[in-house]
Every structure is written in structure tokens, then in C-alpha cells.
Amino acid sequence: MRIGIIGTGVAGSLLAEALQDAPGHDVTAFERVAPDDHAEAGTGLNIGPNALKSLRLAMPARHAALRAASLPWNRWFVDLTDGTRLLDLDLLEVAEEPGVRIRWSELYRLLRAPVAGCTRHGHALEAVEEDAAGRLVPVFRTAQGLVREGGFDLLVGADGRYSRLRALTAGEPEGTLLGVCIWRLLVTQAADCPYDDYGQWFQGNARLLSFRVPGGAVYIAGTFPIGPDGVVDEGMKTPAAQRALFTPPGGAPCPAVAWMLDRIAAQIDDIHWARSATVPLLRTAAGGRALFLGDAAQAMVPTLGQGATQAVECGVVAGQVLRRGGTVADIAAARDPRVEFVRDFSLAASDTLLPGCDVVAGTQAKTRPDFLAKLRRTYVDVA
């Protein structure tokens, strides 16, 4: 079976690694950036315990490498911006092992290194054609011009939320906006940061999220509600606006928030601004000749940190199914009910980010048995 993988992000790299030595499989991965070019991966992320469990069970060498290159994610705490604590959860109460914290650039290096030999860089997908045998023929733009590669029995779209393969084979998906602006920043000089593990700080429905990552850096993300038109007011993209957004009325922010606000002011031009959105789940197209994994299939809100985490599960499960002679239908059967549950749970957990939700009551609800049971299901019930 000849398989072409579009994109060597999380799911694509793991799938390529799982299949590159599998009998009966001829795998080629295509990546639009040059080797060692991770410039677009300029922030950090947390990866949930469920991703680590998937790797531990199916790809133990990758599990060990990821653990060695990251910091453990042991706790999840939620405060108000004045320092009032609302939640403090030890992940081992709801998971079998900790998650991890890592830079995106380091994650990409870690995952792409094992598949360098089967990866063609500098290939940006432009079109998809079909040969006389009915196999898919991807057309790439390269430094040498347009190049046709094929035909492939299966093309895998692992090229992210704005998947070109999905758009070409199934049309552009219509996203649904959450009504929240989300911004991201990596602070590389952070020796004086007054906190370590995964924390969130609320002022009304505006939230800061932050944690340390390897290399002495700190990842910071901010969210705040926006109107139904999805437009982010340019006036909010200033140090003064962000300071006002996260400063408690009539009082000073706690040391952690004060530290973040100073770094936001110093690095306002480095912030990446976006809008939180989902797209409908789609696993296959082109009569089963195209398969979608990770954000290409199931872009979800980032509230529970399950975007990259589910991409890990996708890459692991798809690799195991195909190695055993399974089909794209088998992958869909294994992944889609799981993804639907995680997507719905992540969306429900986003309530505190939206106007009309009392943050204190909403956060306290996340300490109750029903929420914790769903969180445990998220972190433990991998395929």
C-alpha cells in the first residue's frame, strides 16, 4: 500500500514513524517547510496524560524521548487575578501518569527526527489529481516548480486546522467561532518567573494561562470574549488594554499576574492573536482514499489542551490500525466516538470564558465528581 502523508506535525510524524518499517507499506511524508525550520512553532504547549499513555503503550521509545525533552505537567490550578485560589488539582487523581510541558519547536524536532529519511521538505500541496488506476496524485509547489507525486492508494491529511488536502478533497470547512479571542506568547528570559506548573488566572471571563517550558522559558496565553461578529478590536492589542483587562478592580494583581502583565507590555509585538473556533469532524474523503488526522480532521477549542493531545492519539491509533492491515473505516470507528466526546467536553469546559458565566461558580463546578469523572475518561480511556 502506497501512502502519502501531507504534513509532518504531530499526527503526521507519528504515523510516518509507525509505518516506515511496516511490511507492505511504502510511506512518503511531505512537509512544506525546510528541514529544521520550526520558525512557525514559536510558543509552547501542554500535552495531556492520555497522549502519553498512547505513546507508552504503542511507541515506548517516543514516550521516553518526549518525557526526557519536556517538563512534567503535574498540577492544574485556577486563581482569580488577585490570587484567590479556586481549584488545585493533582493530575494523578484523574490520570495514570502526568502530562508534559514543552516548546512547539522542540516537539517538532523530537517527532520529525525519526522520519527524516522518508520526508520530502519544501513541498506545498497545490492540487490533487487522479491517475488511470484511480489513485490520488498530489501536486506540490517546490523550489523547482510544480511537481506531481503519485499515485497513492491513500493520502493522509495531517496538515493542520487549515488543511489543504481537506479543502481540495472535501471543500473548505465552515468553522464555528466560540466568541473568544486567544493570544499566545513565549517569554524566553524568565528566570524570575514566580510560578512553575500549569495555572490559570481569571478576571471576569478574561483568562491568563501560563506555565514554564524547558530552556528557561514561560508560555503565556490570554483569552477574552469578543462579539458575535468575531472581530478582535485592535484597541485590545495594546499593553494598556491587556493590563486593564487582567487587573482586579480596586486592587493590585497577584505577583504571578503582575509578572505576566510586565512581560506582555515588553513583548506586545511578539504576541500571536487568533480566534477560538471549531470545524466539523471529518475523517475521510475521496471515497476513503483521503484520511484526515489531528486538527485537519477535528479542530477543537483549546480549553482542556486536547488539540495536540488528540493529534498524538490520532497518529498512534492510525499507525497501529494500518500496520495490522486495517482500513480507514477501522480508524474512523476507533477515533470518531472518542473525538466527539473530547470535543464536546472541551466545549462545555469553556463556559467560564464566555459572558454570562460566573467564573467562581463555574470553576467550583469543575471540582465536582461528574466533571472529574469526565476528565478521568479524557485522560485514561485511550483506544
Count of runs of 4 or more consecutive helical residues: 12
The first-level CATH class name = Alpha Beta
Please describe the biggest sheet, giving its number of strands, its sense, and whether it closes into a barrel: 7 strands, mixed
Oligomer type: single chain
**Given the C-alpha coordinates, what overall shape results?**
globular
Distance between the termini: 24 Å
Helix content: 25-40%
What is the H level of CATH, i.e. the homologous superfamily? FAD/NAD(P)-binding domain
Number-wise, the strands total: 19
State the CATH architecture: 3-Layer(bba) Sandwich
Give me some keywords for this one.
alpha/beta; seven-stranded mixed β-sheet; 19 strands; six-stranded mixed β-sheet; 383 residues; globular; 12 helices; 33% helix; FAD/NAD(P)-binding domain
Topology:
Layout: E1 2-6, H1 10-19, E2 26-31, E3 44-47, H2 49-58, H3 60-69, E4 71-73, E5 75-80, E6 85-90, E7 99-103, H4 104-112, E8 119-121, E9 124-130, E10 136-142, E11 145-148, E12 154-157, H5 164-170, E13 176-187, E14 198-203, E15 206-213, E16 217-225, H6 239-246, H7 255-266, E17 272-278, E18 284-285, E19 290-292, H8 295-298, H9 307-323, H10 328-348, H11 359-365, H12 369-380
Parallel strand pairs: 1-2, 1-12, 2-8, 5-14, 12-19
Antiparallel strand pairs: 3-7, 4-7, 5-6, 9-10, 10-11, 13-16, 13-17, 14-15, 15-16, 18-19
